[in-house]
Amino acid sequence: LDRDTSGVLLFAKNENAHRLLSIDFEHRKIQKHYLAFVKGEPPATEGIIDIPLHKARKGKMRQAKPHEKNSLSSSTYYHLEKTWKTSFGDVSLLKVSPKTGRQHQIRVHLKYIGNPLLIDPIYSQKIFIKSSSQNNHDNALLCKRLTLHSHRIEFIDPFTQKNVTFQAKFADDMQKLYNALERNVALEISK
Question: Which among 2, 4, 24, 173 is annotated as catalytic?
Fold first, then answer.
């Protein structure tokens, strides 16, 4: 996970488990599901973003040029959960499932379709979202980090061969943002 992404993270307790889980990740047997607050509304209620990526400067990734050497195939499925109208434009909540595991894949793919993460200092904008409602006594800071949450991970336990699912609720800041959007609280952006 990127440092500012909240949610489920899988750790192996020993070398053997690490090796087996690494193989499963490599063979795309582990399913990862994220929730993302993005700018705007996507072009369709669901879709697959199938855009190769390429390493860029300073640890970033970018869309690969056609037939570019060393490009990395990458594919991400998204589904629109909900869209809200705000004073700074539409905000949507997407369920996102990367089919490949490239660095910054979700972030680059969402930017590619015109719906970058609401807060993303590398691929979109570094902002803070506050409540500006008169009803909110403290003009609360709601969120100031990547609006990306690792919601669920599913895999077959390499030792028991049973299906395993781990799920994480929103972190507090993202839950506050969700609640404010649901209640139509007046929001403002700070840089």
Answer: 2
- The C-alpha atoms of residue 35 and residue 31 are separated, in whole angstroms, by 14
Cβ atoms of 2 and 34 within 8 Å: the answer is no
pTM of the model as a whole: 0.90
Cα gap 39→92, rounded to integer Å: 6
Task: Output the six-digit token pair for 69.
Answer: 């050497």
3 touches 144 (CB < 8 A) = no
Report how far residue 63's alpha carbon sits from residue 71's, in angstroms, rounded to the nearest whole number: 9
Structure tokens at 118: 């609401």
Give the per-residue pLDDT at 135: 58
Place of tokens 């909540």: 93
Known catalytic residue: 90? no
